[in-house]
């Protein structure tokens, strides 16, 4: 049975009474369920399966046993599965049933208005209505600025939409209400820093992240934020030194560690030193591996066998269509593996959903952004570089809508540049050079940009 060390390790916001005292009462009579809710939330914020707390799976099993009817227990458990984007309620009956059960439980109980809003937001997110889900989480935060679950769920949803400014401001609005003595308060530094860097406030983002790390050296999200800053400013050597120097701190956050290694690997690609090692399992690791293989291939590295390995992971998700960002990465794997039937199936499935998207925000964007980006990748893969440019170039300022970070989406900027450079169309070739000049202005001293410039000159001079 659950033997909680939480009371010793983290006395604040654990018990039923403590949640109530903070103004965030939980509708359960089980003190144990409250501690487990806190344990799950803590691990979610820290990106870590903490075995001293029981890990995610252990805590989720235990919270259901402690109080099977605890609405917020269902909200956090099912919500975490939804934000992981590893399955779709369209296809996964068990997940759809979990959402339905949560709604039914909420309707049958006298729970607080805050908890009822949490259920509403989770249900909206499960339908793909990310904007309205965020609106509801923001409503919660207006009255309850220390509701960390609402803050973290909205942060993730904004990320999936590429909503950079709302992601930043959502944290900025609640920061004054968080006091230094509150556990996990330092983690808000990382959340805020990430919003700052995605809105190009790089120096401020680094400053805030380092403040967070001074308080909590093992805050992997603050490390991740600094890694982004070094990437976007092309401070390659600084990034390499930073990641290596803090590796022992951030690698304990197993949910994020592989992604941080991905950022570390980007610096090596800049310096033309190739490393390749990825954990598997989470969707974040899967899309990172897809992106890395594509980047390596553009650098001229043969990764044929790795595409085949990764296809085994991505192929079962071909029909999911949870986010456009995921879809585009699944497509690059099937294209790399020369699995044309899977590629076509993914494209046709997305086209079909775009016809009647309903309230699903990602499907609403599919017709105007997702589908043409998929088509551009397919044209590029077939050597039709002219057509790839014609499809991709008009979307360059809309790519943000697919979600992810600037660093992750940079892959598609690189793809456009490569297509323009390889195109037989003279205008496209000039465009490619213009895009490289533009890129150099944004992140000066990038070795990758300079290599591409040299390649463009070699091809067309």
TrEMBL record:
The keyword Repeat applies. Transmembrane segments: none annotated. Keywords: Repeat, TPR repeat. It comes from the Eukaryota. Belongs to the TTC38 family. This is Tetratricopeptide repeat protein 38. It comes from Amphiprion ocellaris.
